[in-house]
Amino acid sequence: MNELVRLSIYVAVGVWNTVFDYIIFYIILSIFSKFKWPKWSPLNAPAVAHMISFIIANSVSYFLNSNFTFSDTSESRGFGLYFLVSLFSLAISTTAIQILNSKQIKITLQEIVCKIIPAKFVKDDKNWALMTKLVGSAISMVTNFLGYRFIVFR
């Protein structure tokens, strides 16, 4: 398969999977928002919601990518290695989301973003969490494609 076609299929699967991931993320975040987040937790609610939605969505993503994006590659190394690449991306993206939702960085970035997007939207905690998840998703998209293409589905 031509690499441009492969990348196009990867992007299409990724868009569908991202929508699925965001729906799960938003549902989990909505459930978490009904409770006071424990102060003892080393991770904030958006980071935990991201981890849960990422794992669920990546399980679906494996099926889609192994059957459509990389179906013609000579060797698939299976779900285990796929999941390890995904965990690497999860660690990086969760760290980014955790940092972007930490109090001081969140306040500073919100002031900057409010110059472009209305403050009412930006200062809403769920909307901010969704915006930081966009950053995490962009990071995951790059690291996952490289890992899947050159490690898992060679």
List keywords for this structure.
154 residues, mainly alpha
Helix content: over 70%
- Describe the main β-sheet briefly: none
Give the low-confidence spans.
none
Q: How much strand content do the residues show?
A: under 5%
Number of helices: 6
User: Which structural class best describes the helix and strand composition?
Assistant: mainly alpha
**What's the average pLDDT?**
88
What's the gyration radius in Å?
17 Å
Rough outline:
elongated
Secondary-structure element series: HHHHHH
Distance between the termini: 13 Å
Strand tally is 0
Tell me what you see in this structure.
There is one protein chain. The protein is mainly alpha-helical and 154 residues long. 79% of the residues lie in helices and 0% in strands. The longest helix is centred in the N-terminal third of the chain and has 31 residues. The mean pLDDT is 88.
